[in-house]
Amino acid sequence: MCAAVRRPRCPGRPLPYAAGVAAAALALLTAAGGPAAADPAGFTLTDPRITESSGLAASRAHPGVYWTHNDSDDGPYVYAVDAATGRTVATITLRGIGTPRDVEAVSVGPDGRIYVGDIGDNLGGSWDHVWIYRFPEPAQLRDATVTAEQFTVRYADGPRDAEALMVHPRTGRVYLVSKKQGGGAALYEGPAHLSASGDNTFHKVAPIDLWVTDGAFSPDGTRLVLRGYFGARMYRWRDGRPQDLGGVPVPLQRQGESVSFTPDGRTLMYGSEGRDSQVEPVALSGEQLPDAARRDDDAPQDDASGGGATAGRPGDRAGGTAPSYGKGALVLAGATALVLAIRSLLRRRR
Questions:
Q1: Where is this region: Disordered (predicted)?
Q2: Which of 190, 226, 246, 282 is the most exposed place for a label (fewest CB within 10 A)?
Q3: Domain with 89 in it: what CATH number?
Q4: Rounded Cα gap, residues 199 and 195, in angstroms
Q5: Mean pLDDT by 10 residues, the chain (350 residues)
C-alpha cells in the first residue's frame, strides 16, 4: 500500500513510461496519416508593393518559388516570392516593351522562359489587340532589369477581355481564355510559335462554362485547371483539346484571381488580390490528378515484410480513396495505445 499522507508515487512503471507510450501512439497516428503530411502549406504575400496579385506560376528553376505580378497601374514588374516565408526574393523589371495596360497572367514555358499576359481589357473587350511579354527565367534570384520580347495578340473573332494565359509544358504553345463574352468564356489557341514581328492570331477551340480569372496546365501537360471567383473546373488535356472532368474546390478568398499547380502536380495553389493576400493549397485526388502523379501512385511498392506487394496512395481511384486495412489497423492500434497511456497517467496522479 502507498502511504496515506502525501501519497508519493506508487512503485511500478514511472510516468515517463506512460508518456513514452503516448508519444509512440501519437507517432503511429501521424504515420497513419500518409501523404497528407507532405502537402504544401499556404503562404502570405508580405511585400507591400503586391496589392493586386493577379497571376501565379511555380518556378521551374527555383523550387519553392512562385512568380506573381500586380494588375493594372503598377508597371513592368514581376516578383519572385519564396513560399516558405512569403517574402519577395527578386523583382524583375521589364525593358524593351510599351507601357503595360492590364497585366492579368503569368506562366512558365518549357523553354525556360516566363510569359506575362497583358491581356485584360478593362473597357470590356474594345481594344483591338493585347500583348504577351516573354523573358528568360533568371538563373539567380536577385533584383534585375531584363530585356523582354513583346508579342502583339489579336483574336480571330474580335476583341476579348481575358485573364488566363497558359503555356503548355510539352508543346510550348500559348493558350488564352476569355473571361466572359457573349454569355460564356472560350479557350483560344495561339500559333505554334509566337512572332515578335507581326500579329499573333488566336483562334477559338472550345467553349468554357465559367467566368475565368486564371488557369494553369499541370507540369506533365495532361490536366488544365481554370478558376473563377467562386469555382474551378479541371479538364483532361488530350490532342490539344480540353475534356471536362468536373469541378474542383476553391477556397473562399477576397478576390480569387490566380491559380498554379505545384511542381509535383498534386496540389493547386490559389491566389487572391489584396494587401497581404493569402495563397492557399487544395490537394487533388482521383481523376483530377495529372497522369504522371497517378502513375507514381500505381507504381509497385515493396511492403514492410519484403513480399513485394503493390499498393497505391490514397486517391488513386476516380471514385475517391481506396480502402487500406493496414492503415486502419495502425490507426486502431495507435488509438488504443493512446487511451491506455492516458488512463495510466491519470491513475498515477491520484
A1: 241-326
A2: 246
A3: 2.120.10.30
A4: 7
A5: 39 39 39 50 96 96 97 90 98 96 96 96 83 97 98 95 96 94 83 96 95 96 95 96 96 91 97 94 96 88 44 35 36 45 45
